[in-house]
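Take a record.
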Amino acid sequence: MAVMEPRGRSLRQLDEVVPIAAAPPLARGSRPVSATGRHVGLGGSVEPDTLMRRYQHYALAGDFLASLLAGLLALFARFGAPAGAYLQLSLTLPVLWVLIIAGQRGYERRFLGTGTEEFRRVLQGGLVMFCAIAVVSYGLRSEVARGYVFLAIPATVLFTLLVRRQLRSWIYRLRARGLALQRVLVVGRADVVVSVIEKLDNEPQHGLVPVGACVPLAGAEVSHVQDVPVVGDPGRVLDAVEDTGAHVVAVVSHPDLSGQALRRLSWALEERGVELIVSPGIIEVAGPRLSIRPIAGLSLLHLERPSGNGGRMLGKLAFDRIVGTLLTVLALPVLAAIAIGVKLTSPGPVLYRQTRVGAGGREFTMLKFRSMVVDADGRRAALMALSDGNGVLFKLRRDPRVTRFGAVLRRFSLDELPQLLNVVRGDMSLVGPRPPLPEEVAGYSADAARRLKVRPGLTGLWQVSGRSDLNWEESLRLDLRYTDNWSIALDLSILWRTLRAVVKGAGAY
């Protein structure tokens, strides 16, 4: 793996190296500069631990209020006026809901403020609360009104997810301003350290900012890696922690820091109140697929196989069919209006049919509203040299084949709405990889062919992460990430983010 430098130089290509001794150590409490050029501070009096405690308290209070509001809405919607027993139940639900979320470990810091695990535990809590009410109702032989339950529980989950989403936006804004960031000392091989630093700098919402690196020098002394100061080799991690004031030490791919040596390092960091995280070298794998299995005194990392079939896949299929049908019915007036608009603004059919490749390599006919002139396919060859695509996909920002009405449809992705019928038929999913053309699949590498393990989606990570602005490698990485780590919670998160992406219209042409 090449060691990439944003300024065009790698560690192997440094013409002017600066001895480490020439780079003075960072004093604890100083304000280092991150690889993005920002001054990295602790936000004055806002420490990372303080911020996460606030997040926990706000999440607990928000969950309580969300359940209280949901219970009262269900009470008035079902009975029209407060009823004695159901009023008591509505006031009890918030306490039960908070206890259930706590039981699902939904208030643990490692799940808060990043990733989909926080939302997944809320969804699990909704299922647990539904089962708990059913069991209690049966045990007391006092049937709770189904209308009340089927309003209160989904509303509780929905309101809670909205609260958590607002909290997530709040903490992201603070971190984007450089507040309450955790300083990270990255330790390991130079090439892997560079990769980790790049990822942390590209995703500051996680609240981790690299402030120092410990890499094997191999006779070459350098002062910085990716604009992050090199403060020694892996043998002086503890000194580097003192120099940088690090809150976290991240150990990545270093053979000398494993086994007993890593154990002793964890003890030493524990005494200093510094967290230790270890990268196993596995990339693009979501948390639910990873688990630790202690065997014979060893902590073994177990990697679960992606869910390609079984109960979870049947659940996804049922979710797609049910929600797809509901969305199709709700969208009928919009579909009719768009169909009339297409027919009145350009000659030709309303729908555009194109062969795409679905799960397992099976071909199907994908539907779209026609947004181009009728002979668009015949004119494509003459425009290939002007492509703004990513090297694999053909795209033009100013495509002369697009009609005026079609440009509006494409701007807000309204031309994709007929694919709801593909979802209902089972050819596509609401969320999944982009549906490829047969000629694209013919040129797939072994890695790219893995995209075909799940049904293509009406939307996906590619849709909410840049759409046509992404290069092929980035598009493929996002599709493979989804293929290996999909879950209902991730699907719901992507559907929510899709609404914002469609409104903004970024990357759509």
